[in-house]
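so my prof wants the structure for this chain in the tokens format not the other one, which i didnt know existed until like an hour ago. anyway here's the sequence
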Amino acid sequence: MSAIRLTKEFSFEMAHTLTGYDGACREIHGHSYKLFVTIKGEPISDPSDPKYGMVMDFGDLKRIVGRLIVDRFDHALVLRRTDQNESFIQCLRQNYNKVEITDYQPTCENMVSMFARIISSELPERVELFSLKLHETATSYAEWLQSDNL
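here's what i got, hopefully its the right format
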């Protein structure tokens, strides 16, 4: 049987700020993110299996990524926790539901790496995460490849 790669595209709107950054991205701003999730595996070869011929049902992949990434980050404000912004975070949380606080700077690079860790942990055993591509803008993206992270 052949190894096959499947890719599903997701999109979400998210705001963030890069605390301590020396450019315009230190201000709160938003992006229309596009996330391309590519998995790799062999199609199921058992004719009695309802998923016969599939590496993974696209609907199952959609549910996993939807729950772990899209539902969590769509229309959220993402901030890195620092000693200086603790009172600001408390104020935001009193007024808004979708405030995500991280221990890392919420750059495209750090987010795609974190997304890879959490998506990988939920995939079926016979399927591996091959790559992620996270577009922050139409012309700028960060890419995570499993082969670079062995």
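also thought this was worth mentioning. The longest strand covers residues 4-16.
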